[in-house]
Design a protein that fits this description.
The protein has 322 residues and is α+β, with helices and mostly antiparallel strands. It contains ten helices and twelve strands. Strands 1, 2, 3, 4, 5, 6, 7, 8, 9, 10, 11 and 12 form a twelve-stranded mixed β-sheet that branches. Helix 1 (6-23) packs antiparallel against helix 3 and helix 5 (168-180) runs antiparallel to helix 7. It starts with 5 loop residues before the first helix and ends with a helix. Residues 1-5 have low confidence and may be disordered. InterPro entries: DUF3500 (IPR021889). This is DUF3500 domain-containing protein.
């Protein structure tokens, strides 16, 4: 993978955040900076992917130029593929609201933490129904987890023409992997006939891989199946800017891919209600498509050390005491 270095990503975010501040009215800036400004306060670990308001500036009342700047900021937290995924999730949410009789502007909340014009750590987040992006920036790097994307419905349209299916690759790669397994390997990966009704970690403030079933380890897979699991993990890591995705994958390789495991619950056929997860020492991935008769998907990528930029903040505050 090649892409913009971490410093370039941070610089682009800084410019986009400054541009946002420049197009907002004073009251909107106050809403944007809602809540405590210190980045390591427990309150900032509170999040949800359910409907309802959040602290911060609502995008619902923004004008066209202001929405463009918010979109530009959101794009800086993603690779090209990740930005496409997020735009797809937003489009599905528009479809859902129109179908429910509530059309209108997008309803997400943007929150700025710290000063993007200074030398101290700063961050921002964009949250709403089925979308939660959390970003932390320091001189040492960028962090973008927890990262949640959902789609209700998981697939729009029932006719011969394909509809929107933003999380389709996440589902298809995992199904290809589970159906390629046989015998004891499949028995190890399948942990339940009935899938859980949601991701198991929900909106936990701390990521805990121990909440997930153990599943089938990478080193028990055939080479082709190992490549499928690598592609599935890559689909999640590649949501992030390329430099950070490379960093996360390099860490996983250095720790040994044998520690990866994959687990599945529910039916195996397209349309069946199902769930899967990937466990690793440093991160976890979950996906469920169980609600609305298997047409309502959730997906999340969490990192044990990196969520909320914990590792970067710890390093920054430690250095300040020397």
């Amino acid at each position: 993978m090649s892409g913009i270095p971490s410093q370039g990503v941070a610089s682009g975010m800084r410019e986009a955040a400054r541009a946002l501040l420049a197009v907002l009215e004073p009251e909107q800036v106050r809403e944007l900076r809602a809540g405590p400004d210190r980045l390591d306060t427990p309150e900032l670990r509170e999040w949800t992917y359910l409907p309802g308001p959040r602290p911060g500036l609502s995008t619902e009342g923004l004008d066209g130029r202001q929405r463009e700047v918010v979109d530009a900021l959101l794009t800086t937290a993603h690779s090209a593929a990740g930005a496409e995924l997020v735009r797809g999730a937003i489009e599905v949410e528009r479809h859902r609201r129109a179908r429910a009789g509530h059309p209108g502007p997008d309803r997400y909340w943007v929150r700025l933490l710290g000063d993007p014009g200074g030398d101290e750590p700063w961050g921002w987040r964009l949250n709403g129904h089925h979308l939660a992006v959390h970003v932390l920036v320091t001189a040492a790097g960028v962090r973008v987890t927890p990262h949640f994307v959902g789609a209700e419905p998981a697939r729009t349209g029932n006719g011969p023409r394909p509809g929107l299916r933003p999380l389709g690759p996440e589902e298809d790669l995992a199904r290809e992997l589970i159906t390629s397994l046989g015998g004891t390997a499949r028995a190890s990966a399948l942990f339940a006939a009935t899938p859980p009704d949601d991701i198991l970690t929900r909106a936990d403030p701390f990521a805990d891989p121990g909440l997930l079933p153990e599943g089938l380890r990478y080193d028990r897979l055939a080479p082709g199946q190992q490549r499928l699991l690598e592609r599935l993990v890559g689909r999640y890591l590649d949501r992030a800017p390329e430099a950070y995705a490379r960093e996360c994958w390099s860490d996983a390789v250095r720790r040994g891919l044998g520690s990866l495991s994959f687990a599945w619950a529910g039916g195996l056929a397209p349309g069946d209600r199902h769930y899967y997860c990937v466990r690793a020492p440093d991160f976890l991935i979950e996906y469920d498509n169980t609600q609305d008769d298997g047409n309502h998907a959730h997906s999340v990528w969490r990192h044990v050390r990196h969520d909320w930029g914990t590792d970067l903040l710890r390093g920054h505050y430690t250095e300040q005491h020397f």
